[in-house]
Amino acid sequence: MPLRYETYPYTPHLGWSISRYEVFDKCKRQYFYTYYAKHAPGVPHYKMMLLRDLTSLPLEIGSIIHDVIEAFLRRLQKNDSDIDEQRFFQYAREKAEECFSKKTFIEIYYRQTDALATEKAYEKIDACLKNFIGSPSYSWIFMKALRGRENWMIEPAGFGETRLDGLKAYCKMDFLMPVGDDVYILDWKTGLRDEAKHGAQLKGYAAAASNNFGVPWDRIFPKIVYLFPAYDEFELRLDNDGYREFAAIIQAQTKEMLACCSSIEENIPRSIETFP
User: Fold this and answer.
1) Where are the alpha helices (DSSP H) in 134-194?
2) 3-state SS string for 77-101
3) pTM for this prediction
4) Rounded to whole angstroms, how far apart are CA atoms 140 and 80?
5) pLDDT at 193
6) For the chain, N or C: smaller number of CB within 10 Å?
7) Strand pairing partners for 233?
8) Contact partners, residue 143, CB within 8 Å, separation at least 6
9) Residues whose CB falls within 8 Å of the CB of residue 122, separated by 6 or more in sequence, listed in order
10) Alpha-carbon distance 25 to 12, whole Å?
11) What is the phi/psi pair of residue 43, to 5°?
């Protein structure tokens, strides 16, 4: 099943994503600073960019794991020889050292600690990767999915823009692979299990795959793969009723966010006072 990721012309109109609405729902002021920083009154642009680029240790651990697995899958597309575990873990260590030396962490910036807990971070990264290469998903990729590797989609470029019932949305999946007439989607997690949040995320991935590739909703099998503290899985079984319910939720959440715009077409926010 050859797949081609659909592209869309740029528009300033806001797009729904699970992360965007999560920030909007949690704190409207944080939402304003996150998505409308250039409209913030009285704050120097350089300061806003600094604050926007702050990261955290748990966030970067997850990012490193994603990068390492992405590199492994891209190598596997070209060469299906057994993994060199020593090089695999050394690569992860180098990625982590580079990240910890270059990025500005919330824990340090706000003086929550004098130094990053890097040794514990290395231990967690190693544990996640050990759980990955010892997992059923790892074995399944080699045994069944490898035959269609020329059509794998691994961290596709861009932000995963799609359309859900005509609405702009961003649903960037980690790993999509066709097997026969079915499509499997895997998403790696290094944090806590959250079936409500992750279920919505998986439905977004499935809707994007169905829209972009013309795959029937019920032939898509999305799964969260938890890598810490132990390997676990959360897989959704999709049906048409589930799609309609999900589409209605996205319509409602998008409408909420649009209500905070002074110009919907140009995606310009109302005044900061509108965002308590």
Assistant:
1) 136-143
2) HHCCCCCCHHHHHHHHHHHHHHHHH
3) 0.89
4) 13
5) 94
6) C
7) 225
8) none
9) 93, 96
10) 22
11) -115, 120
